Amino acid sequence: MRRLVKIALVALGIRWLLKRRKRRREEREAAELPPTPAAPNADPADELRQKPAASRTEAEPDETEPASAPSVADRRAEVHGQGRAALDDMKPSDEG
User: Fold this and answer.
1) Domain segments of the chain: what residues?
2) Would you say the pTM of this structure is higher than 0.85?
3) How many whole angstroms separate alpha carbon 71 and alpha carbon 81?
4) C or N: which end of the chain has fewer Cβ atoms within 10 Å?
């Protein structure tokens, strides 16, 4: 039982040391980085609104191209045909 308590205490000590080391490293890195100047009256929501607006303008499809995608009914018929062909391949033949 004492051995188990010793192992638990050692594990807790190691965990404490690792957390302390990590915290000190983060504090040192934060001190090295210069503070970023914030623009006066800058609203973070405005920046977030600009990102989707910019992506919409970049991703707009070219309206001069005709839509060449097959209709849903055509695609469904094609998939069903492939399924039937697969089932026919799996059926055992009565040749013997």
Assistant:
1) 1-30
2) no
3) 16
4) C
